[in-house]
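Progress against Task 2.4 (sequence-to-structure conversion) is shown through the following example record, which the project officer requested during the mid-term review.
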Amino acid sequence: MPKRLLLALAGTLMVLAGAARAQVDENYNVVLLTENFPPYNMAINGKNFAQEDNIDGIAVDIVREMFKRAGVKYSLTLRFPWDRIYKLALEKPGYGVFVTARLPEREQSFKWVGPIGPDDWILLARGDSPISLASLEEARKYKIGAYKGDAIAEYLAQQKLEPITALRDQENARKLEKGQIDLWATGDPAGRYLAKQEGVAGLKTVLRFNQAELYLALNKDVPDAVVQKLQAALDQMRSEGFVDEILNSYL
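Structure tokens generated for the chain above:
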């Protein structure tokens, strides 16, 4: 076969392959999972299962706009518990979960889009508590409540602090108020928002021990082109001030 014909045929195949990839991208659907994690994600009715328009929150508003701008189709479900939806995103092609901390030990397990918002790690105490801390090590002698499966709880366990975990983080606000725990390891602003929703007031921050950013974690099977479109859309939203506007509207 003449060389020119071979080159022409190769060029045609490349164009067809590119068109096929574009078609895949156009019809690709991401199954998004989230949890009740106010003010970032929450069911409008306050229950542990919701779908599509029955979910709101800072991250939900940002993710919806991000997918819209990227032109990527998705479905959205809020369910419980966190361990389950995290495992689904980890194992099932085309799935994603948000929001979650992007930690070194998780880096290779997902493809990441973000950051979506901040999540400082803090220890809260009752307003009348005499506890004063200069380091996390000093908290070792106290009973610390945390959220099961959350990055904060995992970190405390790695540090041998043995947190007492709850299935819902807002349970820790009540436990702290009742004296069942001495300290509550949670995120900021999430902890303050949850305490307010539970009617628990007067809590004080006794230690801020880490700063983290929250992300959308996508299964490694999600095409790179989809991830890049989503990241580009989010970057544009942030540059326009859209992300800050959403954050400020909830806090």
